[in-house]
Amino acid sequence: MNGILKKSYSAVVFLFLYLPLVVMAVYSFNASKYSLSWTGFTLKWYTGLINNVTLIEAALHSLIIAAGSACISTVIGTLAALIMHQYRFAGRKTLFGILFVMMMSPDIVIAISLLTLYLLLKMPLGFWTLLMSHVTLCVPFVATTIFSRLKTFDPAVVDAARDLGAGEYQVFRHIILPVALPAVVAGWLLSFTLSLDDVIISFFSTGPTFEVLPLRIYSMVRLGIKPEVNALCVLMIGMTIAAFLLAQYCLKKEKSS
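RE: above sequence
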């Protein structure tokens, strides 16, 4: 009886999480454009994406911003986590607290504060302001993720390597980085996801010359959900699954080697 209840509970949880995605994927093949009633199977919404220049351009902008902010955030977050773990200095606890404050702050607060900064600096809103805003959003998540991984690491291994003549770079390259690599990959993927689906910070940080996909979709769905949006979201889910499987493969290969 307990086994049946556990399986039923798991089924309800997975149904709650993934049923909306399944419904969206199914209706991306619906021939009807203005109705939710099923009128037939079609692939025209996927082929129509090729001719939707505005939507494709916004998607490319989002991928560029997400990949760029994820890479920059991973580098900064890794260095911050390493510094907080390896060294003791004045303000270390303050720095750690600032990271948690940024993580817990509402997006609207971060967005308005960044917009105020850009206006004071007289920076034109566009690609660079959006990139810096997303880096600001993602760095605390990367740093705390990698720091949590480093907390499980035995520091005696580093001391032994230094006693044997290893320098700082050798210790980082051959000891710390392999241990922290799963967290580094997780931090990159988390940053990429946070940047890709952010709406509020993107709304306040970008200008009319650089539109990203979440803002484009938001402006479209206010007048109703169009099948092209469903098709694009299904393709993005497929890309996300492919990236996840690739990351898992790389981690397994690194672990086996």
